[in-house]
Amino acid sequence: MSYLSDIEIAQQTEMEPITKVAAKLGIEEDDLELYGKYKAKVSFGLWEKIKNNKDGKLILVTAITPTPAGEGKTTTSVGLAQAFAKLGKKVTLALREPSLGPVFGIKGGAAGGGYSQVVPMEDINVHFTGDFHAITSAHNLLAAMLDNSIQQGNPLGIDPRRIVFRRVLDMNDRALRNIVIGLGGKANGVPRESGFDITVASEVMAILCLSSGIEDLKERLGRIIVAYTFDGRAVTAKELEAQGAMAMLLKDAIKPNLVQTLEHVPAFIHGGPFANIAHGCNSITATRYGLKLADYFITEAGFAADLGAEKFLDIKCRVAGLKPSAVVIVATIRALKMHGGVKKEDLAKKDLKALEAGIPNLEKHVENILSFGLPVVVAINAFPTDTEEELRFIQEKCAGLGVPVVESDIWAKGGAGGTALAEKVIEACEKPNSFHFLYETELSPKEKIEKIAKDIYGADGVVYTDKAEKDLKEIHDLGKDGLLVCMAKTQASISDDPNKKGRPTNYKLTVREVRLSAGAGFIIPITGSIMTMPGLPKRPAACNIDVDENGRVSGLF
């Protein structure tokens, strides 16, 4: 049987004008800033009209540890919203904006799949409304002003050997990880080592997603630490007088984007930090709009529950004052068998032994979310090769944890394939909820890191390199011990070793360095071999992408 690709399904869909989609949430055309017929930004003026509305139920979608077999977290998020609409509920959705790096690399975009997508998917995955370009420009403006200050007599006394603010680019380009700049003589700047991170790892991205408005944005941007002086004093963006111009570049990017699903459910797509190297959640602004405009608000956190969900709960919920009503953990039988040691080419075969070996991964993620005091529903994203025996095995295992398991078929059937899941999630939203954070801000950085490592990752402890110890001392000397923790860790394992599948035990987490994001309000312990600038695979996805003379895109998925 041949199936349509995601992009073919999306291109066959007749979209509704975004004004009509917005009207389902009570948003008038005057409160939209249109980007063509099917995309819009929501104006800040709308907030004054809705800020006193009662908040809807907040539903977080997360997943098991990713595998090449696929889990479908974004697809489930979109399909679940469509299922709520099928049940007659007033619902909206919020996702992150895709990064060009993965789109042209190996992972692909982030617009969902099959009959559970957000559209226009080509636009969403490539350029969209220009938010990422604005973030890249604002970040690199600060980098340019920093180097210019040194070139123009260095009035702040910046030590060129102690510059900690790198440049960014929204592309996977390993050649730019470590570079030398300022070559070519005196007129071209001061030679020094530097490098690039991917835009989604930028502190400016994190700040945009955590800011409540323009004034908060400017204040946070001003707190970014870019370098240290010869006598060890931290230099901020505010001292370079950069925060105003940076905020000006971001004045439109900070407004949430509104699009639609294939079934015309309103969807916010805004912000895009990765969950393995950043905090992995859409913007607080989009979340607040969604909660005020609908009775049920669905959002996702990047990668698995050990990464995106932990950061959503400990960072975003704390900063924004949010309280989730329920959490959905997405898994596939195929992926669980892969965690049990089955090769990708053998996943279609029934293998209860492999499923039993792999299911501890799901159990650990369920236990982690339950430890936050939140109701959990496990969603099994259906594949044709799934068997009743395998599904029943998972249901029995999760029953021991007091968690319901529902199979959904939202890839093939859209919202209609997820109504049973939606009904279970509605039930979960009414269950007792004792949500609490994993750690208190009063703990030392090491105590917070070790709390996450032991309780969430299952590590026996944490090992710090000399560089990490030095970084933590500098953070302490700056009086920043009270900041939150945003772990940078491989997404391929609950541990810091991507080769350890399932539920790793008997290991220690290694922190090799700790970066400070004072504007965002957290520190970033970098663990294992995680990179903040990814590289391209042997055959990038870009090799398959094309556009014809009529502007029709192919090969995107």
Describe this protein's structure.
This protein has 557 residues and is α/β, with parallel strands linked by helices. 34% of the residues lie in helices and 19% in strands. It has 19 helices and 25 strands. Strands 1, 2, 3, 4, 5, 6, 14, 15, 16, 17, 18 and 19 form a twelve-stranded mixed beta sheet that branches. A hairpin with a 5-residue loop joins strand 24 and strand 25. Helix 14 (352-370) packs parallel to helix 15. The longest helix has 21 residues, at 131-151. The chain is globular. It starts with 5 loop residues before the first helix and ends with a strand. The model has no long low-confidence stretch (mean pLDDT 95).
Keywords:
557 residues, alpha/beta, 12-stranded mixed β-sheet, 19 helices
Brief digest:
The chain is of the alpha/beta class and 557 residues long.
Strand percent estimate:
15-25%
Helix content: 25-40%
Low-confidence stretches: none
Quantity of strands, as a count: 25
Which structural category do the helix and sheet elements fall into? alpha/beta
- Give the overall form: globular
| Distance N to C terminus | 18 Å
Largest β-sheet summary: 12 strands, mixed
Rg to the nearest angstrom? 23 Å
User: What does the average pLDDT come to?
Assistant: 95
Number of helices: 19
